[in-house]
């Protein structure tokens, strides 16, 4: 029954992760509640992220929402950063990792509360690639380290680097996460931080959610994506209050 609930939650988290962000803030606490040590939960969650994001990439590509040149430019620093982040996460004690999860949840809630909701789109575009490279190196580090909420950082970073609308931004975001997650999984696996049985169940659910999320993002448009982002932020705040 618990695995069935994890499977259903994984579908919902997969939709959030692909069409907006924040699904891992749902899955990580649930995996810990299921009984996995925090660092193992972090590693186990990466298998489902790999499946859902590559299915999301396929779904976006199928609908002609694709930009290979931009993907490559942004994915290189993200992968380099994720290698460092995943390594430090895999060797961190579980108690410390729990504290870090709580801190990042607080940060995301505060940022969301004080953000200017009147600004509907980014009007500034970064033209310097070295600056973009450094930004995505940091985002990649965070993604490799904890992953949860990285989609919100990538959405902001991609829009600043490219000026894309939210639909195309989500397509690029999905490809970046799908790529650096491969590297993160290798590191977590070598450190014995993946429960493969639980990972198979959750990955199946998030794979379904990832495909549906990409489909809904394209068909429903920016208004739908913005609504999901608000839902994701709300879920983070609720989880923080009851943590």
Give a verbal description of the structure.
The chain is 81% helix and 0% strand. The chain has ten helices and no strands. Helix 5 packs across helix 10 (222-241) and helix 6 (129-145) runs antiparallel to helix 7 (150-162). The longest helix is centred in the N-terminal third of the chain and has 25 residues, at 38-62. The relative contact order is 0.24.
What is the count of structural domains? 1
Element pattern in H and E: HHHHHHHHHH
Rg to the nearest angstrom?
A: 16 Å
The span between the termini is 23 Å
Estimated helix fraction: over 70%
- Low-pLDDT runs: none
How many individual helices? 10
Class inferred from helices and paired strands: mainly alpha
Number of strands: 0
**Apparent shape:** globular
Mean pLDDT across the residues is 79
* Biggest sheet details: none
Strand proportion: under 5%
Give the arrangement of secondary structure elements.
Elements: H1 2-19, H2 24-34, H3 38-62, H4 68-90, H5 94-114, H6 129-145, H7 150-162, H8 166-190, H9 196-220, H10 222-241
Task: Summarize the entry for a quick read.
With 243 residues, this protein is mainly α. It has helices at residues 2-19, 24-34, 38-62, 68-90, 94-114, 129-145, 150-162, 166-190, 196-220, 222-241.
